[in-house]
Design goal:
There is one protein chain. By secondary structure, the chain is of the alpha/beta class. It has helices spanning 7-17, 27-31, 57-64, 79-90; strands spanning 3-5, 20-23, 34-35, 39-40, 44-47, 50-53, 70-74, 95-99, 106-107, 113-115, 125-126. The strands form four sheets. The chain has a five-stranded parallel β-sheet. It has a two-stranded antiparallel ribbon with strand order 3-11. A two-stranded antiparallel ribbon has the order 5-6. It is globular and about 35 Å long.
């Protein structure tokens, strides 16, 4: 089972323990804003008929990161990042955590914010790749 942490805990781990942030949102989402220093490897790409799986996700992550690198995984609201974290754990990555609520915050059934994400917590963001 993948550990799930808050945005504030993700930032603390990055600052104090050398964790890196892997944003698995699509490129257009990433370009609109992301945690400072984040890497972007989309789990899904925006296609003509909606979101499509990125068939190269595991290959790219495996080329960029070592299996024992400390990686915080985030997305928009927590769904994609949890799937990505589970995929990476299944592929042998040993230090992977999922940042709950992603960049934009987790939302309840009626669209209300149930947990603030990275941006709402006021943590440092960037639009630079």
């Amino acid at each position: 089972m993948v550990e799930r942490i808050s945005a504030k805990d993700a930032k603390r781990r990055m600052d104090e323990e050398g964790w890196v942030y892997l944003d698995v949102r699509s490129v257009p989402e990433f370009e609109q804003g992301h945690p400072n220093g984040a890497y972007n490897v989309p789990l899904l790409h925006m296609g003509e008929s909606g979101m499509q799986p990125n068939p190269h996700f595991l290959d790219v992550v495996s080329r960029v990161f070592a299996k024992d690198d400390k990686i915080v995984i985030g997305c928009r609201s927590g769904g994609r990042s949890l799937r990505a974290a589970e995929l990476l754990a299944d592929a042998g990555f040993t230090n992977v955590v999922d940042q709950r609520a992603g960049f934009g915050g987790a939302r309840g059934t009626f669209g209300q914010v149930s947990e603030p994400g990275w941006q709402a917590e006021g943590l440092p963001t960037s639009t630079e790749a």
